[in-house]
Design goal:
Helices cover about 60% and strands about 0% of the residues. The protein is mainly α. It has a domain of about 35 residues. The termini are far apart.
Length: about 100
């Protein structure tokens, strides 16, 4: 059997619990730091590899917003024309509004 390694420190037996508590705190602190390092690596890697939710829609182009505005404009004009045709009393009114 191996002899216990002798050290230059001599502490009273009553300080053994204090020593165990202090070493436990230090070990837990090291574990926490290691966990933080791992999380930082994971976060950095995900940031480089995984796309953000803020990316644009793949089919959206510069022409789409203009076409959308034009469509909404024409739809509203058509709705106004249809509302005028119905009239206030429910009878159909004929009016010419030109090309839509």
């Amino acid at each position: 059997m191996r002899k216990e390694q002798e050290t230059k420190w001599r502490a009273p037996q009553r300080r053994e619990e204090e020593f165990k508590k202090e070493i436990s705190i230090l070990i837990n602190e090291e574990k926490r730091k290691e966990a933080e390092k791992v999380m930082k690596v994971i976060t950095t890697t995900c940031g480089k590899v995984i796309t953000s939710k803020k990316t644009g829609v793949y089919w959206w182009s510069k022409e789409v917003p203009e076409a959308r505005r034009e469509c909404i404009k024409k739809r509203r004009k058509m709705q106004r024309i249809n509302a005028e045709k119905e009239g206030k009393d429910g009878s159909r009114v004929q009016q010419s509004h030109g090309n839509i």
